[in-house]
Write a structure and sequence with these properties.
Largest sheet: 7 strands, mixed
Strand order of the largest sheet: 2-1-5-4-3-6-7
Number of helices: 5
Strand content: 15-25%
Distance between the termini: 63 Å
Radius of gyration: 20 Å
Order of helices and strands: HEEEHEHEHEEH
Number of strands: 7
């Protein structure tokens, strides 16, 4: 065997294995957003179907689970029922808010009529809130403490276990 080829192969392979090994044990859906630790970007959005706009500032004093979603998003559909249940069981302690991203009013209303809605669903016309939060795909969920600071961001469909872990962080941030 050619020692030069072996040395070059090891020189390439060993660093790659080290890089991959450093990634083991890390949640691939956890996103270290530059917003984490900062004040949540303000918004004032209209609920699906109309009504008085809801401003994020009006929710200060209570932890917020802010979920960006869309009806056309299959993972969003997967987590929808679990989020409703969580909002129902934790609603006295945490405010859940859904922000509908890049969708049509008729589709949103039909989806909520068929699948239910346990918390406010707000329409992000023009995607300004999504842009402010750096959303690049749905679902994405932000966990905001009672002071209005973002504690964490999660990309992808939440499971009950993952949600519980982040809610625990929110409760500890009080």
């Amino acid at each position: 065997m050619n020692k030069t080829v072996l040395a070059i192969g090891l020189g390439i392979t060993v660093p790659l294995i080290v890089i991959l090994a450093l990634g083991f044990g890390k949640d691939p859906n956890r996103i270290d957003s530059p917003l984490v630790g900062r004040e949540a970007p303000p918004f004032e959005l209209t609920p699906v179907g109309g009504g008085s706009p809801i401003a994020l500032a009006s929710l200060k004093g209570k932890p917020v689970v802010l979920n960006f979603w869309a009806t056309w998003c299959v993972p969003c559909q997967t987590e929808h029922g679990m989020l409703q249940q969580a909002a129902k069981s934790m609603g006295n302690h945490i405010q859940f808010v859904g922000v509908v991203y890049d969708d049509e009013d008729a589709r949103i209303q039909d989806f909520l009529r068929r699948h239910g809605s346990g918390y406010p669903a707000l329409v992000d016309k023009g995607g300004k809130a999504a842009i402010a939060y750096g959303v690049y795909g749905v679902p994405e969920t932000f966990f905001i403490d009672p002071r209005g600071k973002i504690v964490a961001k999660y990309e992808g469909p939440l499971s009950a276990e993952i949600l519980t872990g982040y809610v625990q962080q929110l409760m500890e941030a009080k």
